[in-house]
Design goal:
This protein is α/β, with parallel strands linked by helices. The protein has a single domain, classed as TIM Barrel (Alpha-Beta Barrel). It is 45% helix and 15% strand. It has 13 helices and eleven strands. Strands 1, 2, 3, 4, 5, 6, 9, 10 and 11 form a nine-stranded parallel beta sheet that branches. Strand 7, helix 7 and strand 8 form a beta-alpha-beta unit. The longest helix is centred in the C-terminal third of the chain and has 15 residues.
Length: 282
């Protein structure tokens, strides 16, 4: 089985674009030449059905199925249903979430191993190459190498992408999400980026990871320093955003999924401008 992600994809959620606009968003992504549309917001696999049904080639991926909110045999059954209708067009992204977000959070590595074992033992198992893991630290990255196709990372700098590549090896997937703001007014763009970043700077898994990769306590405090905001959520013209995405590729990423923030609804103008700057062709 081969799931083609393409070099560049898009990351969004139904909360951002509106579930009624799923088909429109997927068709736009495919027409512009993006390889994959990642659906965030802790979706179950069945929720990507409208994205696949509206398109012919586009891959859909979950970013991510939360192990505390999902049952592995149900997830496996939904993935199998998708594959029967849309073969080789769905990648199951799985993640452990955050201790601040669930009272059940405990022994995350053990919980992930147990979830993967459940996928393995399902009536129609999910093969390692059909799944990837959200991973930041070395142990979860190791598990991504051992038990999955690789890793889908989030809210990371290119330095982390380089580390992830070294950790998972040359033959595994490294697919970072990169949030961005298409706005050439620096202060306005940073304000939009900080509004988006507020949630993530309150989650210890993310802040601890930032501290491991060159940022200080002062960088993650008070809404994030300009330096942190500019690296993690680059802003500017489409060409400047494209250059930032290529930094992740240069650091070892196979695929970069871009999330345009500070806009509501289907971001037609932003996705179109980025596609042109990235040299995509529909």
């Amino acid at each position: 089985m081969t799931i083609e992600l393409g070099q560049f994809g898009l990351w969004t959620s139904y909360r951002a674009i509106g579930e009624d606009n799923a088909a429109e968003a997927a068709q736009l992504a495919e027409r512009l030449g993006y390889g994959t549309l990642w659906l965030g917001g802790s979706p179950n696999p069945a929720q990507v059905t409208p994205l696949l049904a509206a398109t012919e080639r586009l891959t859909a991926a979950t970013g991510i199925v939360n192990v505390w909110q999902s049952e592995p045999h149900t997830v496996a059954a939904e993935r199998a249903q998708l594959d029967s209708h849309f073969p080789d067009r769905f990648l199951l992204g799985i993640g452990i979430g955050h201790p601040e977000a669930t009272s059940d959070y405990r022994h995350p590595l053990k919980a992930m191993r147990e979830f993967l074992a459940g996928l393995d033992s399902a009536r129609r198992p999910v093969a390692p190459e059909e799944r990837c893991l959200a991973a930041l630290g070395p142990k979860m990255l190791d598990l991504s190498r051992e038990r999955a196709s690789g890793t889908h990372t989030y809210f990371v700098a290119p330095e982390h992408t380089r580390f992830a590549r070294e950790r998972v090896g040359s033959d595994k997937l490294v697919a970072p999400e990169m949030a961005c703001v298409l706005d050439t007014d620096v202060e306005r763009a940073r304000a939009k980026a900080r509004e988006y970043a507020e949630t993530y700077l309150g989650l210890s898994n993310y802040t601890n990871n930032l501290l491991r990769f060159g940022f200080s306590e002062s960088d993650v405090a008070d809404g994030g320093s300009d330096r942190l905001i500019d690296v993690i959520i680059p802003h500017g013209s489409a060409e400047e955003i494209a250059a930032a995405a290529r930094q992740h590729l240069d650091a070892g990423a196979d695929h970069v999924c871009l999330q345009t923030v500070g806009v509501s609804g289907v971001p037609v103008d932003e996705w179109t401008a980025l596609a042109a700057a990235l040299g995509l062709s529909g």
